[in-house]
Each structure stands twice: as C-alpha cells, then as structure tokens.
C-alpha cells in the first residue's frame, strides 16, 4: 500500500484519488486556522512556491480535534488559508486524524512514520507536551497525531519518508524536501 491508494475529498466533498500526485514529492499536513502553529501556513506557502515547479505538492487537511481550533466548515478553512496566508496549495475537507473516526490516510501515515518523541531541547515542544498532558493525555501514548501541523514527507514513489511534529518549522526541513526533488 502507498499514499496513492487513498481517496480524499476536496473541501466541496468531491472525491479525489491521491493517484493524481504520483511522481511528486508530497508534504501532507493536518491544519487548523486558530492554532499557535497557524503562522506555519506562511512558511508552507513559501516552501510550496519555491519547489512546486520541481514536482512538490503540499496537501492540507483541516482538523478540529485539537482544542477545537478549526470550528468552521471545510470551505471556511480554505477561505481562511487563502485570505490570510495566500495559500495556493490544496486544502481538503475537514477530517479526524486520531481515534475511531480517523481518516484511513492518516492511520496509514502514522503507521509508516511513528511518533519519535518530543525534542526536550525545544521550548515549543516542551510546552506542547505539557498542554497535551493536561488536555488530551491519551494522545501522548503511541503514534497518535499530537497536535495540528504534524507533517509527513512523501517521496516520488509514494513512500513515507519522515514525520515532523508541529513544533518543527517548514524552514527546518526544506533541505530534506529539496534532496527528494
């Protein structure tokens, strides 16, 4: 099984096969418009602009499971990204990434790139861990997505290469994207 085997939905509910991204390097991200990490949209868009002509795509999936930080509709999430951050990469229908209702794509991604722990030298990582411990301690165990803006890097063959936790900025791994292109 590969990423290309999954069907997702555009914000308007239209199904789309990830097969259409075959041969491209992908970054798949669960997003939210009212999150501490929301400003990452800026850097994600810059990364997209820099590499899209070389076969790079970012796929955003709004999620409301973390602090109810994506309360609106899928269409509202898309509009927010475009109006506030000039996002040009696709933002899909809102989904769940954890629990029984988790979208199969994210269940697959979590299995392919398990959680590697919190970087205790990173202040944002420490703060995130404390917040999760307080609000959603069940997400601290296993490979569950810990918060919004968890990112998965996929190579041109559809293999999951790496998982980046929310506190990892897109600029911190741009060289890894470039290496796959």
UniProtKB/TrEMBL annotation:
GO terms for molecular function: peroxidase activity. Transmembrane segments: none annotated. It comes from Thermolongibacillus altinsuensis. This is Glutathione peroxidase. InterPro entries: Glutathione_peroxidase, GPX_CS, Thioredoxin-like_sf, Thioredoxin_domain. It comes from the Bacteria. Residues 1-181 form the Thioredoxin domain. The active site is at 35. Pfam families: GSHPx. Belongs to the glutathione peroxidase family. Keywords: Oxidoreductase, Peroxidase. GO terms for biological process: cellular response to oxidative stress.
């Amino acid at each position: 099984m590969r990423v290309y085997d999954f069907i997702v939905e555009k914000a308007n509910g239209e199904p789309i096969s990830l097969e259409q991204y075959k041969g491209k390097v992908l970054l798949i991200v669960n997003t939210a418009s009212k999150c501490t990490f929301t400003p990452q949209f800026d850097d994600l868009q810059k990364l997209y602009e820099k590499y899209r002509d070389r076969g790079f795509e970012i796929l955003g999936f709004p999620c409301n499971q973390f602090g109810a930080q994506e309360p609106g509709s899928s269409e509202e999430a898309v509009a927010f990204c475009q109006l506030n951050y000039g996002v040009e990469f696709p933002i899909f229908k809102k989904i769940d990434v954890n629990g029984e209702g988790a979208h199969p794509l994210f269940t697959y991604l979590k299995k392919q790139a398990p959680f590697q722990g919190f970087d205790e030298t990173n202040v944002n990582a420490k703060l995130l861990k404390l917040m999760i411990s307080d609000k959603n301690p069940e997400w601290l165990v296993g490979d569950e997505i810990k918060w919004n803006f968890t990112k998965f890097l996929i190579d041109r063959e559809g293999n999951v290469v790496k998982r980046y936790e929310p506190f990892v900025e897109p600029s911190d791994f741009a060289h890894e994207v470039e290496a796959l292109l």
